[in-house]
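Exam revision sheet. Question 4 asks you to relate a sequence to its structure. Input first:
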Amino acid sequence: LRDTFRAAGVDVPLIVETRKSADLALSRPASAFVSPALTEETLVARIRETIRQSVRMEEARLRRAVLGPLPVDREALRHPSGSLMVAGAGQAAATALTQAGLSLPIEGALTADAVCRRLTQTPHRALFVDMPLDRTCDILQKVNADPRLASLPVLAMATADDEVDTLAAAGCGDVVLRDADPADLGIRLRTLLLAGARRHLADAL
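Answer key, structure tokens:
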């Protein structure tokens, strides 16, 4: 169905509910992954946000069809510059990038203030948080309070299922358990980076 829709020029978001995604043989990348541990309220919010982003991309396509190509650096839009900001331990993030086949610089920080300061000083593709729950929530609160970081994709690591919904509701684009398979983590990070790139493109257009 999704291939049929795409052939007609329409993008239909694919939201996959799963604890693990490494074994999913998807012909096209998912738009978002959600965990079965999410509450109904958080799940609805995640679905709503994914649809909203899809609609924005459709609006950008329509504007281009009506107005023609815009005078922008299209190559820069396809490949936005920036690094991966890691709050906390960076080993899992480095492994995820390797598993996803991505070559992306990593910049690290250990406090919420340092994370936000560096995020606003230089461009970053995404934020990867591997910290205890209370410190992660502190970072998310500060990131969400800064309008310049409103479109920044965030992936956080959780210790147990009962933390997943809390982190998702706090603004994480995806939440992965710390014992997740590295290949699965790589897929989740790639999906989040693609979503961020689509937002970047829609904003520019």
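Marking note for examiners. Helices lie at 2-7, 40-67, 74-78, 91-99, 112-121, 133-144, 161-169, 182-204.
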